[in-house]
Design goal:
By secondary structure, this protein is mainly α. The protein folds into two domains: 132 residues, no CATH class; 94 residues, no CATH class. Helices cover 73% and strands 0% of the residues. The chain is built from ten helices and no strands. The longest helix is centred in the C-terminal third of the chain and has 39 residues. The radius of gyration is 25 Å and the shape is elongated.
């Protein structure tokens, strides 16, 4: 029992130390980005140049991400994720290292809640698959219709959609018609007098995809199957990609679940072992 308890203790310490470092890095970057955007952008600019991009290309990439809304949203997301990982891993690491029953019990209860929520989410998604599919489509289309903007005035939602569409080679949620309901995109196209039907991210691009340079300049006003992905919806393509990789998806889910379950068992085993040690010490005293 002493060997098993020692093995569980140090394995739990190692596991949580890794996540502790990851959470600390995310939290630090998020706080740095929220407190001092200028220095962060300067260092990002230098790192982009060292990766082989020209000064002009690097400047364009930095300007895209330098929007206040993009930086603020990114900082808040990093802070939230980093703080969550930091707190959970801190409880597990310190609790296992000191064999502290209070910290380990709190850590174990947090993992049980997360584990239960994951199982509930999977079960509900399977039971209400059709309703969940419709709700996800509706939410995605709403983000396009209310927040998607043109290339010259991009916000966090626009950049996120552009990143998805350029990497997945798709257009909109269902197809290009979703952009006919994107109010800000339509208004910007009307003001420009160009008559855009799709954004640059829906086109077949040339060069660095982050620059959004269509191979065919007429793509945005006259999209076709030869110069764009106008009929390839991102949601359907994502579902198809998941279906093709179900083994990997289930494997990852089982791996995450098994890791959480083992961490829960180890945490309560160490708690029980520390309780037995306390009783033995009290007996001899």
């Amino acid at each position: 029992m002493d060997v098993c308890e020692c093995f569980a203790k140090y394995l739990l310490c190692l596991f949580n130390f890794i996540f502790f470092v990851v959470g600390s890095v995310l939290l630090t970057v998020g706080l740095w980005l929220a407190a001092d955007k200028t220095s962060f952008l300067q260092i990002t600019h230098l790192s982009t140049l060292t990766q082989g991009q020209s000064h002009t290309e690097a400047q364009l990439v930095i300007e895209e991400f330098a929007e206040p809304s993009v930086l603020d949203h990114t900082a808040y997301i990093l802070i939230a994720i980093g703080a969550f990982i930091f707190i959970i891993s801190f409880l597990g690491y310190c609790g296992a290292l000191q064999s502290n029953k209070v910290l380990l019990t709190t850590y174990g209860l947090f993992l049980i809640i997360i584990f239960a929520l994951q199982i509930a989410g999977i079960v509900l998604s399977l039971v209400y698959r059709k309703q969940a599919d419709e709700q996800v489509r509706t939410l995605l289309k709403r983000s396009l219709s209310t927040s998607y903007q043109a290339k010259n005035n991009r916000n966090a939602v626009t950049m996120s959609w552009d990143l998805v569409m350029t990497n997945m080679e798709c257009c909109g949620v269902n197809n290009y018609t979703d952009f006919l309901e994107a109010r800000q995109f339509v208004e910007a196209s009307r003001e420009e007098g160009i008559g855009r039907k799709v954004p640059e991210a829906c086109c077949i691009l040339q060069g660095d995809h982050s620059l959004l340079q269509p191979a065919d300049e007429q793509c945005v006003v006259a999209p076709s199957t030869t110069n764009s992905y106008l009929f390839k919806g991102c949601y359907n393509k994502f579902i198809h990609h998941l279906a093709e990789n179900l083994n990997i998806v289930f494997g990852c889910m089982l791996g995450v679940g098994a890791t959480q379950f083992v961490a829960i068992v180890f945490a309560f085993c160490i708690c029980k072992g520390s309780g037995q040690d306390e009783r033995v010490l009290a007996y001899y005293k």
